[in-house]
UniProtKB/TrEMBL annotation:
Gene3D superfamilies assigned: CAP
Alphabetized UniProt keyword annotations: Signal
PROSITE patterns: CRISP_1, CRISP_2
Name of the protein described by the UniProt record: SCP domain-containing protein
Species whose genome carries this gene: Tetradesmus obliquus (Green alga)
Signal peptide: 1-25
Domain of life of the organism encoding this protein: Eukaryota
Domain SCP residue range list: 85-218
Pfam families, per database record: CAP (PF00188)
Amino acid sequence: MARRKNVVQHLLLATLLCCSSTSFAARILLQELETATDTTPLPGIVGPAQPAPTSGAIEPASQEQLATAAAADIAQAIPPLYSRMLARHNTFRMRHGAENMTWDAGVAATAKAWAQKCKWEHSGASGVGENLYAAWLRTAADLPRAAMDATNAWYKEVSLYKFNNPGFTMETGHFTQVVWKATTKLGCFAALCNNLIPDAGLMGYVVCNYSPPGNFGGPADYRVNVQPARRRRAAVSATAATAAAVNVEAGTTP
């Protein structure tokens, strides 16, 4: 318990230091994960930045897995996990009258390059918005679950956003970037990191970049780009079709 208290205190301090008006809020979003139900292999998965704990059952990637990851990178295909993350983003966006984003290999490469560094701070990459998420993992197999949880956690900030007083706040910066209407491209990467922060152990680190970036301007810009949710019935039927289309395009199943 003492170690966890120290870790949380460090995370809260990192939160105050990592945020800027150009690269969005990174309020820490951590949670204990139950046993993962989504065990889809993650092409491009990153090994721990430091040697894995001897007590952990973390298997090294096989040559076949590495070859698959390389082929996916070369083909710039959307791995199944990221296809689902894109669909989830678009589900939330449609609730707020925003058009679907498309996956962008260049934006994804920017997210990947930063996630692999295993640094709990914003990258400062120019020309993109950025959302960060971290979660403690029991094993490497929990990473896909954490990656999917990231978008949900960012969107939950909607409950704190004041549509009658639009603008940026540290508590809602992830949400406003997810649904920002003028953003059209998404790229994400989920990495395994040992000690993303001191004494944290094995964590999943999710970086999503957005182009063009959101979270800029004054109340008028937010009023246009972050709109109240529409009626759920119409949104649900439309987003179901969107998710299906994304999976068909990527050659995957939901």
